[in-house]
Amino acid sequence: MVTNNRLILGVITKTASVRVDSVVDFAYGSEILINHMDSVCKQPPLDGDEVARRAEKLLGSVTYSLLWYNCEHYVMYCRYGMAVSYQTYQNRERQRRERVRERERERERERREREREEREREKERRERRGERERRERDIERERGGEGEKGERERERKREKRRREERERRGKGKRGKRREKREREKERE
């Protein structure tokens, strides 16, 4: 019979004992469920004599690990010739899938963080560009207008001042030509 104390001691000391018990002693008053692993296991079951020989070969103390070599591993080795535990395999597989999902979630978080940072950088670039454009517009306004429109406005004002100056001086064609040359020099 397997008691909780024996199970706990086996886990702590990493050893277990294999012994021969009757079915009644093994069940210790509990119902026995028959596990039909034949439909799950890929290997065909060994014949009864080979199963008994393998079980007798392992009588006494054996290494024990709850995950890597427990009673299910022992039974699978005796019956099918391979020491696997579907319970622990399923648990390890579930843990592996969870680790994969966690890595995917982490990658997704990192991707979102990179996208957020890129949006913030783009916003800062737009703000700097907008600030630069505002400064340029302010400079243009101070000069008398914006862009070509401002240049035309400035040219119109200059022309108006020249006309007024000519009228004040009373110059004829010669004065107009000289003034035209002066204007061209100003543009250069």
UniProtKB/TrEMBL annotation:
Positions annotated as active site in the UniProt record: C71
Protein name (Swiss-Prot/TrEMBL): LRAT domain-containing protein
Domain of life: Eukaryota
Biased composition range(s): Basic and acidic residues: 119-168
CC annotations in GO: rough endoplasmic reticulum
Molecular function in Gene Ontology: phosphatidylcholine-retinol O-acyltransferase activity
Basic residues: compositionally biased ranges: 169-180
Organism whose genome encodes this protein: Mugilogobius chulae (yellowstripe goby)
GO BP: retinol metabolic process; vitamin A metabolic process
